[in-house]
Amino acid sequence: MRETIDKIRENMKGKLDELQSLKAKKEELLNELNQMREALKVDDKAKTEGVSNLAAIQRRIRELEWQVQTNSLDIEEEKRLVKRIEELRKKENELKKYAKLKEKYKEGRAQLLAKKVELSTVRSKMTEIVGELKIQRELLEKKKAERDAIVNQIIELKKRIEELSAMIDKLGNDVSEKQKELGSAIEMSRRGSQTWSRQEEQRIMEKKKEEVKEKMKKTNRLSFHEFRILYDGAQGSDGE
């Protein structure tokens, strides 16, 4: 469980680092977009008119140059045409700048669009990571709850084991006491049995001895076995 939680935390840390990196990238893109918008604040109308008039001005320059080169002009007329050509040349250069500016503007617009797409991608990725982080947090909380539940179960099991151990110890002590009591009872029973056996044996012997005595009084004759009973009985009486 600990390994799973550590893995989730490590994954979340990686996602957070990636999110911070994307936030920095987003700020960078926003700054670039603002700079591009400022750079593209030009007069679109002027650029459009300039490009459309460039061809006419160039054509007019060629016409005037042709007049100067082919016609016989007085000095004043030639000066006027040359001056006009110079004015048109300046205008041509300005319009060429407008043309370059428009091209640059188009490129800038394309770059701006690309940056917007990149920014949109970054934002989408950030949203995705935030969603993943939410899922990871929920999973982390779930695993932590499972871990806490397992810890509580372990604590309860330890308490139960301790209770059972105490019960087992008590039962062991009780068994030892009962074994001692049983041993004492068996010993007492054995001794009582031995005493009873001797007493019973003596009673039977006394009875037989009386029977032999009665027979001897009546018949004055005894068998060897009967004589032995009478003799052993007498010996026993002397021993006592």
TrEMBL record:
<dbReference type="Pfam" id="PF23435">
    <property type="entry name" value="DUF7121"/>
</dbReference>
<keyword id="KW-0175">Coiled coil</keyword>
<feature type="compositionally biased region" description="Basic and acidic residues">
    <location>
        <begin position="198"/>
        <end position="214"/>
    </location>
</feature>
<feature type="region of interest" description="Disordered">
    <location>
        <begin position="186"/>
        <end position="217"/>
    </location>
</feature>
<dbReference type="GO" id="GO:0042175">
    <property type="term" value="C:nuclear outer membrane-endoplasmic reticulum membrane network"/>
</dbReference>
<dbReference type="GO" id="GO:1990904">
    <property type="term" value="C:ribonucleoprotein complex"/>
</dbReference>
<dbReference type="InterPro" id="IPR055545">
    <property type="entry name" value="DUF7121"/>
</dbReference>
<dbReference type="GO" id="GO:0003729">
    <property type="term" value="F:mRNA binding"/>
</dbReference>
<dbReference type="GO" id="GO:0008298">
    <property type="term" value="P:intracellular mRNA localization"/>
</dbReference>
<feature type="coiled-coil region">
    <location>
        <begin position="75"/>
        <end position="111"/>
    </location>
</feature>
<dbReference type="InterPro" id="IPR039604">
    <property type="entry name" value="Bfr1"/>
</dbReference>
<feature type="coiled-coil region">
    <location>
        <begin position="5"/>
        <end position="46"/>
    </location>
</feature>
<protein>
    <submittedName>
        <fullName>Uncharacterized protein</fullName>
    </submittedName>
</protein>
